[in-house]
Amino acid sequence: MSQQLTTSRTLEFQDHSHKTNVFGPMIPRNPQFTDHFVDWVDTSKYTLTVGGSSDAIAFSATAGGQCLFTLGQADNDACMLAGKLIWNGSKNCSLNARVTITDVSGVALFVGFSDAETESNLLPMDYKDGTLVTTADDAVGFICDADKGTSSIYLVGTKNTTNATVVDSGVDWGDTETKELAITVDTNGHAYFWIDGVSVGKVTDAVTAATLLCPVVGGAVRAADLGETINLRRLSVWEDET
Length: 242
What we know:
Elements: H1 37-41, E1 47-50, E2 56-60, E3 66-70, E4 78-82, E5 94-101, E6 107-114, E7 125-126, E8 133-134, E9 139-145, E10 152-159, E11 162-163, E12 167-172, E13 178-185, E14 191-195, E15 198-203, E16 214-221, E17 229-238
Antiparallel strand pairs: 1-4, 2-3, 3-17, 4-16, 5-13, 5-17, 6-9, 6-16, 7-8, 9-10, 10-11, 10-12, 13-14, 14-15
GO molecular function, one term: hydrolase activity
InterPro entries: Peptidase_S8_Asp-AS (IPR023827)
Keywords: Hydrolase
């Protein structure tokens, strides 16, 4: 078999093109590498809301790098990192985050979009005391909250203060596990979710498509399990060009 594949015009993947179809590194003859690591790990580029006692969000110099959330010393202490209000569903905004939770039974996590860079509750949406609590007017994202009494990851949204139907992704988050979380919001305000590259559900009427949103990652202490950590290893956001 020849070691070279030559095509005169294009190479088209059909049928299973939505699945993995390239194995091994793609190495172009003249590669160009762009390092976006500094952009997302530099917390000075984001709005940080650090409430409670001893909460902290800071760069942590570990292999591969991470933005480390250290949660507080009292139940429900919370902190939140948010980007700028420049994204919306009208432009098919998308978010991809890579997150590690050390102890799932001791934290609440929200990853997604919100209409405010900071919230009085510090999380746009959560399951405090087992009930869905919505602070934002418009928000969409993933929730994993020990107060819900499960390690399941839930898909949530709120459109102009009206909560969408919550979807259970069917995926549980285990201690020390790292998850790849992805969301796309379409021009109708519907949201599509992926975990570790697998589609896990859709939330209809998740947000108001025209409302400007910011990317948000937030964590809170649960069950007085103090000083737990959440590691944000990557955060990428994009949408259609204007």
